[in-house]
Amino acid sequence: MPAHYASLKLSRAMPILLSAWLVTLGATSAFAESGTTPEDPRAPWNWSEDTVLSAVNQVRAGRDLNPDSWPGKARVAVLLSYDVDNETVMGLRTGEVSIGPLSQGQYGHRVALPRIVKLMNEEKVPSTFFFPAWSLKIAPEQAPLINASGLHEIAVHGWIHELNTSLDAATEERLLRQASDEIEAISGKRPVGYRAPSWNFSPNTLSIVRKMGFLYESSMMHDDRPYELVQNGEATGLVELPVEWILDDAPMFNPRGNRYMNPRDIMQVWIDEFDKAWEEGTMFLLTLHPHVSGHRSRIVALEGLIKHMKAKGDVWFATHEQAARYVRAQAGMD
Ligand SMILES: [Zn+2]
Q: If you measure from the C-alpha of residue 230 to the centroid of ligand 1, how many angstroms do you get, rounded to a whole number?
């Protein structure tokens, strides 16, 4: 999603997140309102060790799953992901429907996605496409377009790009189940990977993802390498393929204030991130959005990045599913 939407939504979500978590502690949500005194035991500076640690330990990184080498003795795994948000982030998710922004959403599936799929197919770069279910329901022709080459993966990115922290557990689970059902019905394959809309985790998200039996999750930022998620001190068996705002096209291309960055400068950020991942022998995961990166001047940055990675060599290009299955097997998790 565009960064200005993301920042707005994330900052709006913070009081909701805090009060949701306080409810899990049995506290009232009154703390989120004004009138707190410095002596109030609910104030964070008065929290007990247990309170702080139980907040921190809800979702943590466990064991490092970066393998000694990637398939073909490659030094680095490259995972390109596309969050195909289209109209869902252009008003649908908030109900603030406006015709102009919705046209930008249609650009996503009418022009940008076909341009990106063509490039990935020509370069033979397997990629993962994360869909809010409504994005695929509005334009179901995207599924056969992506599936035609047999290279790519379709995964789930919520129902209508809802903010998980604004939902109760039952609603969040219902939406994710119906999203998986719809995507399976349209694409012909049940998604095995989950990415939270806006990377927004509620206190219930990990439990729901575990209960639904996903192979991997891709919304967290604990590391540059793949790892196992730990929930309240318990190893989950769930592979995390981590993301980062630096490696997301939306804040790079559409920063606050709409002062667009030069795509070639952004390409250099991606190249530097990739080169360090190559040196370290780890993983390079890039989050892109067709409606953001699929424009003519910006696809040039993606073409340049792929050219650079191929020239460097010893790269394993993979879908998220392929990477998750590989690291699980290497770690003896199967
Ligand atoms: Zn998204």
A: 24
Global pTM? 0.89
Q: How close is the Cα of 69 to the center of ligand 1, in Å?
A: 31
**200 is written with which tokens?**
């927004």
For 251-282, what is each residue's pLDDT tens digit? 888 766 667 889 999 999 999 999 999 999 99
304 CA distance to ligand 1 middle (Å): 24
Q: How far is CA 159 from the centre of its chain?
A: 14
**Structural contact between residues 25 and 170, judged by C-beta atoms closer than 8 angstroms:** no
CA 139 – ligand 1 centroid, Å? 16
From ligand 1's centre to the CA of 6, what distance in Å? 9
211-220 average pLDDT score: 98
311 CA to centre of ligand 1 in angstroms: 31
- For residue 229, the CA-to-ligand 1 centroid distance in Å is 21
Cα gap 132→162, rounded to integer Å: 9
The pLDDT value given to residue 276: 98
What's the 90 CA to ligand 1 centre distance in angstroms? 11
- What's the confidence (pLDDT) of residue 42? 87
User: How distant, in Å, are the alpha carbons of 38, 44, 56, 57, 237 from that of 47?
Assistant: 12, 5, 13, 15, 31
Cα distance between residue 158 and residue 196, in whole Å: 6
**All structural domains of the chain:** 5-56 (no CATH), 61-330 (3.20.20.370)
Mean pLDDT of 235-247: 97
Q: What does R_g of the chain's alpha carbons equal in angstroms?
A: 20
- Residue 75: the pLDDT is 97
Q: What is the mean pLDDT of the chain?
A: 91
Q: Which residue has the tokens 């096209």?
A: 249
List Cβ neighbours of 236 (8 Å cut-off, separation of 6 or more).
Answer: 62, 206, 210, 228, 229, 230
Lowest mean pLDDT among 16-25, 73-82, 91-100: 16-25
